[in-house]
Structure formats: structure tokens, C-alpha cells
Amino acid sequence: ANARQREEEKNKQVLVSEDDPTKFVCRVCSKNFSLQRLLNRHMKCHSDVKRYLCTFCGKGFNDTFDLKRHTRTHTGVRPYKCNLCEKSFTQRCSLESHCLKVHGVQHTYAYKERRT
């Protein structure tokens, strides 16, 4: 519990970029974020506490979304389908990259289609 409290306190220490006051900067790795909530989510990756474990291989994650995405590597579930061909992907970024490289189009992904 104490380790978790220390992590939460560290996350509260917001560093705003001097170059761009609309950007939030990670104090650990200097990565920039446009929103405070995105920085807060990112800060979990620097924590040693891994609350969510993969039932297939035991790898730990700080976020349920990251665990769900990782689990697809074991299950073979490919929820991101190309509407121009028969290919499907485990991650949205892979679908977007495919659409641009293979079909030459920027894929716009509808919000309701994500995370199935």
C-alpha cells in the first residue's frame, strides 16, 4: 500500500513544458502529453507494481487495456479489420499502418469500433 501511495504522489507532481504550456511532461522519461490524464496513465508504466497479470504467461501490466492488448498475442483475436481487404490485426496502429502502406489511404477508425 505504501509503494502505491508513493506512486500516486509522484503522479500528482505535474510538470508543464516550458516550451509549450499546453503539454504535460513525464518527470521520469521526458515524454510529452497533451492531456493530464494521458500523462497519469503513462506514469503507471514506470511503476514496479504490476496489478494485472497475464493468465497465459504471467507478464504483469499496470493497465487493463495493456493486458487485454497483450492477451491477443496468445489468443489470436484480431478485432481490427481492414475494410479494403481480408486482413485483420491485433492492434489499431497495425491496421492504420497497413491501410497507409498497402492501400495508400489514411484509415479513420470509428470510436465504437475500438477495443472489441
Automatic annotation (TrEMBL):
UniProt keyword annotations, A-Z: Metal-binding, Nucleus, Repeat, Zinc, Zinc-finger
PROSITE patterns found in the cross-reference section: ZINC_FINGER_C2H2_1, ZINC_FINGER_C2H2_2
Family per record: Belongs to the krueppel C2H2-type zinc-finger protein family.
Taxonomic source organism: Cobaloides argus
Keyword presence, Ligase: no
Lineage: Eukaryota, Metazoa, Ecdysozoa, Arthropoda, Hexapoda
Descriptive protein name: Ovo
Family annotation (InterPro entries): Ovo-like, Znf_C2H2_sf, Znf_C2H2_type
Entry GO terms, CC: nucleus
Protein's UniProt keywords contain NAD: no
Domain named C2H2-type: residues: 24-51, 52-79, 80-108
UniProt main location, coarse: nucleus
GO biological process: one example: negative regulation of signal transduction
